[in-house]
Amino acid sequence: MSTEEGRKIIAYRQKMAVNSSPMSPEAYAAAVVKKIENHDLLKIDYYNGSYSWAVYWTWLLVPRWAYLPFLRKKFRLNAVWSSLKAKFNKGEVVLESKKLV
Predict the structure, then answer these.
(1) Which residues contact 28 (CB under 8 A, 6 or more apart)?
(2) What is the average pLDDT value for the chain, to the nearest integer?
(3) 3-state secondary structure of 14
(4) Which of 14, 32, 67, 79 pairs as cysteine with 1 (C-beta 3.0–4.6 A)?
């Protein structure tokens, strides 16, 4: 993946974020801190945001091989994925699971 391609991906993601009317970082941080303070301290993952419930249930119930292609296409990450996969196959990137879906 070229640097120019990476810039285009980042610009696309920034535009997508602005168009989705995100909450301010301060409001997001306050909501997450409130969840942490009011819930189980042993919980690792806290989901917050517009479709956080969908992310939680997808992560919980749908196999990775089923949703990763959708996420790569939606967020235009196929070039990033291909680059990482090529580096992984050459042994330049090591993952804990030793498998790249």
Answers:
(1) 22, 48, 49
(2) 81
(3) helix
(4) 79
pLDDT digits over 44-59, tens only?
777 777 778 888 888 8
Q: How many residues does the chain have?
A: 101
* Residue 30 CA from chain centroid, whole number: 21
pTM: 0.53
- Residue 49: exposed, middle, or buried by beta-carbon count in 10 A (0-12, 13-18, 19+)? middle
- The torsion angles phi and psi of 65, rounded to 5 degrees, stand at -65, -20
In 3D, which of 72, 35, 80, 76 has the Cα closest to residue 53?
35
Domain annotation covers residue 98: no
Q: What is the largest CA-CA distance in the chain?
A: 46
Q: How far apart are the first and last CA of the chain?
A: 19
Domain range enclosing 38? 3-90
Rg (CA), the chain: 17
Q: How far apart are CA 30 and CA 37, in angstroms?
A: 10
